[in-house]
Design a protein that fits this description.
heterotrimer; A alpha+beta (about 170); B alpha+beta (about 1000); C mainly beta (about 80); A: about 170 residues; Gyrase A, domain 2; Alpha-Beta Plaits; 2 domains; 5-stranded antiparallel β-sheet; about 25% helix; C: mainly beta; Folate-binding fold; 3-stranded antiparallel β-sheet; two-stranded antiparallel ribbon; about 10% helix
Chain lengths: ~170, ~1000, ~80
């Protein structure tokens, strides 16, 4: 396992710090009608403001991210806003780990195992989607022209790291 | 003597860069830019291979990827060894080492050549008709001998050390082939603003332009046009150029597979580079500009070394500066051979004769050849050739008006060039399920109606004149870009071309004048002759699909590139049918052979599969755990101390759990948080149990069926609040349970307000099981009234400073707790518990002990004791099905089962071996002692340290009616009715009242 | 690899999806039919897919079993 992580190449594969994460699900109409204090994005997009981010996962399903310190406040604010409305808010802070892939060849490295069209026209900054990377599922968020944030199920992290490092080797890893 | 056949100047090779290489151990010299084929030819080496079946000496037939003969083995070292590579596609590098194949002991003296003598015994399909007597001889003599002599190339014996990459790519227009049509198409598409990928199997782009030394395009040379076009494309930001990249497969929805060769042409590749890459390209539109393959002529002994295609010879001369021989005869039905004759003549090769099968040859090239004084013989056929390791003589004969052969006219030569015309390459179009139509004028199958979004341009759709090809390609590229949604139209480009009139002609089938006893080869790689095809039709095969498979024509690694059409012509003649009535077999991927590596990609070694570890993996490893694979997870199986084998470790772990306390990592079990006002209703409809009245803070063991009434999964479900449940599943079942739940939630019951969130990896789960469990836990937990927690309850609080979900549940039958903490805290909490429990003898235990302990209690393991055909009643869990529930998954099937006559179903029972120490084998068959009737099988079997004897669980027909009965368990050393004697008992061996759950 | 149009996410590679059986299974007929009998048409097949490694939604669509092409647009209701 350590062997896999040690293969991280300097192509800019960077584990990101711990975050507070929540899955928010409800009927789309419910979420549209309630001031949530966080802008919910349209399909296949992410929005962020003031350190809080919302990633669209499916109709009426969002992954919310914020700093660990802000987590309880976010959860409380949401519960208050949705009080009396059918919804599901579940903490998944530890379920996922995040890493950042950056560099000129970031898209090419991702396309080694991910079938998404990562051209800027098809996948602009702010695009997010769940897909696969090799044999793992990932949540991909384009945070810059040459920068992606990946959310990975915790136990798949060494594999994803290893996969990206291997794919990046030819670019000077 | 080096490179006797190299011209003094000319060619695209780099004469300033000489290279050394070896073939069959002999050293030769060549130049950068050579292929192995051209370099060997330059050195006068014509004998390159022995054919597949008859082991006939063979040389180069072509200059390209359609080469059927010259398959060699290339080895960098003992592990980097590739057989069956076409010498025409191997780029020369310094130190290249190649070996011929299919010959023992050497190319020059091959024992396998005896097959050539035995040819009459070895026609097509011989293995269906001969070598049948005596019967025993087949297995011991014939088959091994035939196998030893068959096959092509030696498989490498060491693991492949090279790395292979893969890439998904998207584009608006994929152009396959970079000859004039492909280049023009790419230019047009690029100018339209499309995202373009242009690929070519060769190292250099340009296709036929690379050997075009006569035509002028847009006022300049073909080379100037080629270079300028490439410069434009290379500079275009949305164009990707892929050389050395073969489009090998056309898959549904415009996905095209490309195999890119990255390092094979380098003497010392950078180890960071992958050797090859698989591109999976999804193109909005595909332009196929795949050109055409020249056809050989089918006449007796047309396969000797030194007999090659006319255009190939011209390519060797023009591109590589190699004279393929010194005295040439050309045999042709196509004008193109005359162009070759002129080129060779200019380069100093003596042209002994141009034998044209046609009665007239009025084209521009034949006229030019006649003007140059070359000896042209019209209405002339070939009766045969001589020369064992190289052609030495061609026997020509004039054809009279009735097609009868005149007297034999032998012509000595060391080079025989043939041209039967050109076959448009429709492989990829055919793979895409596009429809072909036979064009009578061109005598060729041409692409007709595409099945995918495909455009076809140039020679692959029958165009020949360079001006036409360029214009056609440009139009196709523009149309493709348009169809892909690019609104910009490219500038008009007329491509004025000055060139001699394009060569025409061609024939299909065998030449007249076939000598009896002589073999005329059609498929060179599989050694299929015209006789074989005629034989197939005489034996009653009519469909081309049958003829192909019976004779194996077109089934070699070249997929009939140089043989399919001649085969069709021969069959058409034999059956007296027109070619379109015979049909054409489907081409299949790969267009040319690919390595296995590109399909494996990174999925090897560490990266073959994700290796999933729990948050406490390092702690277990530090304690010396032996791990086992459970799906993709690594789970600790047992924790051996010094000197312990598995049995000893498991015995100690089990005793520790039942006497003090054990610590078990249960993190891999699936978890789903089900939330919403209709959460309880949702569970009611899914599981067999009742959920509405389960109070918050209580758990229940849930049983999940499929609609067929059989057990699908199980797990403890705890209610956290009115609208919130913590559901667990088996480790292996989480994926399908979640999918099934989402299916019903979304499609069957969209009216319910309930949502599912996977939480398997959110929580680390540490199970404390044993009478001391509460003692160990109490000092560590906060905000939980541990004493008030009865069996099957749950509470939220904190432990060691982190959030805690605590379940009082047991899978061992002892008092038990499952400590759920956020995954990031799992390791720390494990350490805290181990420290806190040290004084009590807290013992880590693994999956093996876990299995033994639960089996002692008769607790089910889904997928081990059940196999998808076990109903709740079969498993003795019938009482779990809540009565009076309006509906739940499987209810209808259970009612149907109940309505059927009782008896005959297998029940879960326990088995005690009459020999107490005899541990049974899982899966072993159970038979009745009386008549040996098969009654069921053993599902779980262990040695129980708690009871000091072997125990087993089993599914047995009418098991509950057989309590106390003696049955036999078949094992390898004791089959059927002589099997081990066992007694059927209730499926619980320890503490049947469950008193120990309270400690 | 097929290209499948998810009603929410747009066209995606087949590898992101799992096949979810025929659409419009009849629950009002015989249990054996529901559980075990399936049509195998040559041509238009009404079927469901799940965008398992995507938005997770089930949807119904129609595919020609001979050409593998999906027939006019998928319906958002399963």
């Amino acid at each position: 396992m350590d062997d896999l992580l040690a293969r991280t190449a300097p192509l800019g594969i960077r584990p990101l710090p711990a975050m507070a994460r929540f899955m928010l699900q409800a009927r789309p109409a419910t979420l549209a009608g309630v001031p949530l204090g966080i802008v919910l994005p349209p399909a296949c997009r992410a929005t962020e403001a003031g350190g809080r981010a919302a990633l669209w996962l499916g109709p009426g399903a969002y992954l919310l991210r914020t700093t660990p310190a802000d987590g309880p406040a976010l959860a409380a604010a949401l519960e208050q806003a949705l009080a009396g409305q059918a919804h599901a808010l579940v903490e998944v802070s530890d379920r996922l780990t995040a890493l950042e892939l950056a560099g000129e060849e970031a898209a090419a490295v991702l396309n080694a195992g991910c079938p998404l069209d990562l051209d800027l026209a098809a996948c602009p900054v702010g695009f997010c989607a769940r897909s696969v990377l090799g044999k793992a599922g990932i949540l991909l968020w384009r945070t810059g022209a040459a920068r992606f944030l990946l959310e990975i199920e915790r136990s798949f992290t060494p594999y994803v790291h290893g996969f990206l490092a291997e794919a990046g080797r030819e670019f000077g890893g | 003597m080096s490179q006797a056949l190299r011209t003094a100047e000319g060619g695209r090779i780099d004469r300033a860069n000489p290279l050394g290489f070896s073939f069959d151990g002999r050293s030769y010299r060549g130049f950068a830019g050579d292929t192995l084929a051209s370099a060997l030819l330059a050195n006068g080496v014509h004998l390159l291979a022995r054919s597949f079946k008859y082991h006939r000496p063979r040389g180069l037939l072509t200059a390209g990827s359609d080469e059927p003969n010259a398959l060699v083995e290339l080895a960098r070292d003992a592990a980097r060894c590739t057989p069956n590579l076409r010498a025409t596609q191997i780029e020369l590098y310094e130190g290249l080492r190649a070996r011929s194949q299919n010959r023992t002991p050497s190319l020059a003296f091959d024992l396998g050549a005896v097959n050539d003598r035995l040819a009459p015994l070895l026609p097509a399909g011989f293995y269906y008709k001969t070598f049948m007597w005596p019967k025993a001889a087949w297995k011991r003599l014939y088959e091994p001998s035939i196998r030893a002599m068959a096959g092509l190339g030696r498989a490498p014996t060491r693991p492949d050390p090279d790395r292979y990459a893969q890439r998904y790519a998207h584009c608006d227009v994929l152009v396959v082939g970079s000859g004039p049509a492909g280049l023009a198409a790419a230019l047009a598409a690029a100018e339209s603003g499309a995202r373009v990928i242009l690929c070519d199997e060769q190292a250099a782009f340009g296709g036929t332009l690379l050997a075009e030394d006569e035509a002028r395009i847009e006022g300049g040379s073909a080379e100037a046009f080629r270079a300028a076009s490439l410069a434009t494309l290379a500079a275009a930001p949305r164009v990707r150029l892929l050389a050395r990249t073969t489009a090998f497969g056309y898959f549904p929805h415009n996905m095209v597979g490309l195999a890119e060769r990255i390092t094979d042409h380098l003497a010392a590749p950078d180890p960071r580079l992958p050797r090859e890459r698989l591109w999976q390209v999804r193109a909005r539109e595909v332009v196929l500009a795949t050109g055409a393959h020249e056809r050989p002529l089918v006449f007796p002994e047309n396969d000797r070394p030194g007999i090659m295609l006319a255009e190939a010879a011209r390519v060797y001369l023009t591109r590589y500066g190699v004279r393929p021989g010194t005295r040439a005869v050309l045999a042709t039905a196509h004008d193109g051979a005359y162009r070759t004759a002129l080129a060779l003549h200019r380069a100093g090769v003596e042209i002994a004769a141009i034998a044209d099968l046609r009665g007239t040859a009025g084209g521009a090239w034949p006229a030019a050849a006649r003007d140059a004084g070359l000896p042209v013989r019209l209405s002339t056929t070939i009766l045969g050739t001589t020369g064992r390791r190289r052609v030495a003589r061609v026997d020509l004969a004039r054809l009279d008006a009735d097609g009868r052969c005149g007297v034999v006219e032998p012509v000595p030569c060391d080079l025989l060039l043939m041209s039967g015309g050109f076959t448009p390459s429709v492989h990829l179009f055919s793979q895409s399920r596009g429809r072909l139509r036979f064009d009578d004028t061109l005598q060729a199958y041409l692409p007709d109606t595409p099945a995918e979004r495909t455009h076809v341009a140039g020679a692959c759709r029958g165009l020949v004149a360079l001006a036409d090809v360029l214009a056609d390609g440009y139009a196709a590229g523009a149309a493709a870009a348009q169809a892909a949604g690019c609104n910009r139209a490219p500038s008009a480009r007329p491509f004025p071309v000055t060139a001699r009139e394009s060569p025409a002609g061609g024939m299909l089938g065998a030449l007249p004048g076939n000598r009896p006893g002589a073999r005329a080869f059609v498929d060179f790689q599989n050694d299929v002759t015209a006789k074989d095809l005629a034989l197939a039709t005489r034996e009653g095969f009519r469909s081309i699909e049958h003829i192909k498979r019976y004779t194996t024509t077109g089934m070699a690694t070249d997929q009939g590139k140089s043989s399919n059409m001649n085969a069709l012509g021969i069959v058409a003649d034999a059956l007296g049918s027109p070619i379109p009535a015979i049909g054409l077999t489907t081409f299949r991927m790969p267009y040319t052979p690919t390595s296995f590596g590109i399909f494996a990609g990174a999925a090897r070694g560490d990266l073959f599969e994700p290796l999933r570890m729990t948050p406490m993996h390092a702690q277990a490893a530090a304690l010396g755990a032996v791990f086992e694979d459970v799906g993709q997870w690594k789970r600790a199986r047992y924790f051996p101390r010094a000197g312990e084998d598995m049995a000893a470790a498991v015995a100690r772990e089990c005793r520790a759990v039942r006497s003090a306390c054990g610590l078990f990592d249960a993190s891999t079990l699936g978890k789903i948080e089900i939330v919403g006002p209709d959460a309880a209703t949702f569970l009611e409809r899914l599981y067999v149990n009742a959920w509405h009245r389960l109070p918050s803070g209580r758990c229940r063991y849930g049983l999940l069926l499929r609609e067929d009434g059989f057990i699908f999964d199980d797990g403890v479900i705890g209610r956290l609040a009115t609208d919130r449940f913590h559901v667990t599943t088996t480790t292996g079942g989480i994926g399908r349970v979640l999918a099934m739940m989402e299916d019903y939630r979304q499609t069957e019951w969209p009216e319910l307000d309930v949502w599912l969130t996977a939480t398997t990896e959110q929580w680390a789960v540490l199970a404390l099981q044993g009478p001391r469990a509460k003692d160990i836990l109490a000092p560590l937990v906060e905000a939980v009234d541990l004493a008030a927690m009865t069996h099957m309850s749950l509470a939220e609080g904190r432990i060691a400073g982190v959030p805690l979900r605590l379940f009082r549940v047991s899978f061992t039958g002892e008092m038990g707790f499952e400590v759920n903490v956020p995954a990031s805290a799992g390791a720390a909490v494990w350490e805290a518990l181990m420290a806190a429990g040290a004084a009590c003898g807290l013992t880590p235990y693994g999956t093996e002990a876990m299995h033994v302990l639960r089996a002692e209690k008769g607790y089910l393991v889904i997928g081990q004791d059940t196999d998808g055909t076990v109903s709740p009643d079969d498993a003795g869990l019938g009482r779990m099905v809540a009565r009076g529930k309006p509906d739940f998954i499987g209810k209808r099937a259970l009612e149907a089962m109940a309505a059927r006559p009782a008896g005959g179903r297998q029940h879960l029972v326990g088995l005690l071996s009459e020999t107490p120490a005899q541990v049974l084998e899982e899966g072993a068959q159970i038979v009745a002692e009386t008549d040996g009737a098969r009654l069921g099988h053993v599902t779980s079997a262990y040695y129980s340290p708690t009871l000091g004897r072997a125990i087993a669980l089993a599914m047995v027909r009418d098991g509950r009616a057989r309590l106390g009965e003696r049955l036999r368990v078949a094992l390898p050393e004791a089959p059927a009715r002589e099997g081990h004697a066992v007694r059927v008992v209730a499926p619980v061996f320890y503490d049947p009242e469950g008193a120990r759950l309270d400690g | 690899m097929l290209l499948i149009h998810c009603p929410w996410c747009g066209p995606r590679a087949e590898i992101e999806f799992s096949y979810a059986g025929p659409a419009q299974l009849r629950r009002d007929g015989a249990l054996e039919d529901l559980l075990y009998l399936r049509d195998n048409p040559k041509g238009r097949h009404e079927e469901r897919w799940r965008h398992a490694h995507g938005c997770g939604q089930f949807f119904a669509t129609a595919r020609d079993t001979v050409s593998d092409f999906f027939l006019p647009p998928p319906v958002a209701k399963p």
